[in-house]
Specification:
Distance between the termini: 32 Å
Structural class: mainly alpha
Radius of gyration: 24 Å
Strand order of the largest sheet: 1-2
Shape: globular
Helix content: 55-70%
Strand content: under 5%
Order of helices and strands: HHEEHHHHHHHHH
Length: 256
């Protein structure tokens, strides 16, 4: 992605040197170690006890209740829950990535809760696949249900999209502070989401053809076209501006 971007005019130019002065390293003191451990641990406890807990409660409510016979009531099947209805409204976006069937809305909900914090993806799966039951640290209680919904190719598609797409809201805020420009902030977030979608689409469609899970379709054509475009952008000659042209001409004249 970096190689592709630097070949466009807006990112062209000589690379700026990066210089960082390293402090003298020494063994940490027990006081500093305990203070740092407490600060980081308490920070996680506050986030786990507020944001993550609150989102878990909301997720549990939405997946436990649904509209039955025109009224709000408890449902045993979370596929008819309020959360499923919300997920299905957006799940069509990810159909080319292989997110289909009952897993589509679950993967979609997990992806959007991942914008709160990436660990929310795991938390969401725990709620959706375990229901009211408890999940151990190893997650053995839900693996069978997850494996029934995800094939190897769709699992790669889901993981790749969530790893490459826009980070959590806190990281987005950091991007805004660093860039100090809403246009570049939105462009960065949009680029990450678009790049994630493209790579995930290529992986699912072409990987699915190789494994026999996908039959050749219009999205397969799109995937091959996008793969070709990425390769062209990756290996094409970069932007040559006026300064580069002058430097090249001077080098040729001097025989260098």
């Amino acid at each position: 992605s970096g190689i592709i971007l630097k070949k466009f005019k807006v990112f062209a130019g000589e690379p700026a040197p990066f210089v960082m002065e390293l402090p003298p390293y020494h063994w940490p003191t027990l006081t500093n170690l305990l203070a740092s451990t407490w600060e980081r641990g308490w920070s996680f406890i506050k986030r786990a006890g507020t944001l993550i807990l609150a989102s878990s409660i909301v997720l549990w409510f939405l997946q436990s209740f649904g509209i039955v016979n025109g009224s709000l009531s408890l449902v045993e099947d979370n596929n008819v829950s309020l959360l499923a209805d919300l997920g299905r409204m957006l799940a069509w976006i990810f159909v080319p990535l292989g997110w289909a069937g009952d897993m589509a809305w679950k993967a979609t909900v997990a992806t959007f809760t991942g914008l709160i914090a990436k660990e929310e993806v795991v938390n969401t799966f725990g709620v959706l696949y375990a229901g009211l039951g408890e999940v151990s640290e190893e997650g053995t209680e839900i693996w069978a249900a997850v494996a029934a919904d995800f094939s190897a190719v769709t699992a790669w598609s889901f993981l790749i999209f969530n790893l490459l797409c826009a980070p959590c809201f806190a990281a987005m805020g950091a991007i805004k502070r660093e860039m100090n420009n809403w246009k570049w902030t939105l462009a960065s977030i949009g680029y990450m989401c678009g790049f994630a979608y493209v790579v995930s689409l290529i992986v699912y469609q072409i990987g699915g053809l190789l494994t026999g899970e996908v039959t050749f379709n219009v999205f397969s054509v799109v995937a091959f076209a996008l793969l070709g475009l990425l390769l062209v952008l990756l290996f094409r000659k970069g932007y040559c501006g006026r300064d580069d042209t002058i430097q090249t001409a001077m080098a040729l004249e001097s025989g260098k």
